[in-house]
Amino acid sequence: MLTLGIRQTLTVVKKTDFGVYLADTTDSAKAGEDPSAPDEKEVLLPRKEVPPDTEIRDPVEVFLYRDSEDRLIATTQDPYIHLGEVRRLIIKDVGKIGAFLDWGLPKDLLLPYGEQKGRPQKGESVDVRLYVDKSGRLCASMWVKEEEKKEGAYESAARALRELLLRNGGFLPLTDASSPEEIRELAGMSKKEFKRSVGNLYKNRLIRIEEKGIRLTGKGSEA
């Protein structure tokens, strides 16, 4: 079935001048519905995102969401947050119906006023959970359990540290012996966040811990 908010592999069933249409052709597609499953049976992957030499019956891994006109759409891009996850995102703007978050896709993610704690402003970062609302749209909520919130914040910090390493040639001159001030200046996080992030990246074999700093491994350097 077509499911909003997650990465899934679908099959090309139709080619057009403006893209390809994808569908779930597996037997599991007939097994039943879930709350995040839209009524549509096919979804468009726009031409600019179609992998080269794609043909009918080829598999393509995509993420499903709704565009600015509320149409179901597929993208090969991977957003910063998936359905049910808790992540820290930045508020790009505030409007009449809520705040709009940067989640790595062309259409910003809505954080409705009813799902906010307080009134966060443009430029702030907030911990949110991705869910499907009653209208079948992906939205964000700040109402998350504390242990979900902590886990999401730790993963977000680790991802931010890896991205910083990528921007700095794969190396940062920071260690456990670095002062909180040095870590804040170079990494933009507390020493506690830094140590947890290093532990996360090291556990996943994305970095090496060297005498004078941390360095991305070949795996950690992969896009």
Overall domain count: 3
Q: Give the CATH class of the largest domain.
A: Mainly Beta
What would CATH call the homologous superfamily of the largest domain? Nucleic acid-binding proteins
Based on secondary structure, the structural category is alpha+beta
Instruction: State Rg.
Output: 20 Å
How confident is the prediction overall: mean pLDDT? 85
Task: Briefly note the CATH topology name of the largest domain.
Answer: OB fold (Dihydrolipoamide Acetyltransferase, E2P)
User: What's the architecture of the largest domain, going by CATH?
Assistant: Beta Barrel
Word description of this protein:
This protein has helices at 146-167, 180-187, 191-203; strands spanning 7-16, 19-23, 43-46, 59-66, 72-75, 86-94, 98-102, 109-112, 125-132, 138-141, 171-172, 207-210, 213-216. It has 223 residues and is of the alpha+beta class. It folds into 3 domains: 7-75, Nucleic acid-binding proteins (OB fold (Dihydrolipoamide Acetyltransferase, E2P)); 86-141, Beta Barrel (OB fold (Dihydrolipoamide Acetyltransferase, E2P)), CATH 2.40.50.140; 150-216, Arc Repressor Mutant, subunit A. A 5-stranded antiparallel sheet has the order 3-2-1-4-5, with no helix packed on it. Strands 8-7-6-9-10 form a 5-stranded antiparallel sheet. A 3-stranded antiparallel sheet has the order 11-13-12, covered by helices on one side. A hairpin with a 5-residue loop joins strand 9 (125-132) and strand 10. Helix 1 crosses helix 3 (191-203). It is globular, with a radius of gyration of 20 Å. Residues 27-36 have low confidence and may be disordered.
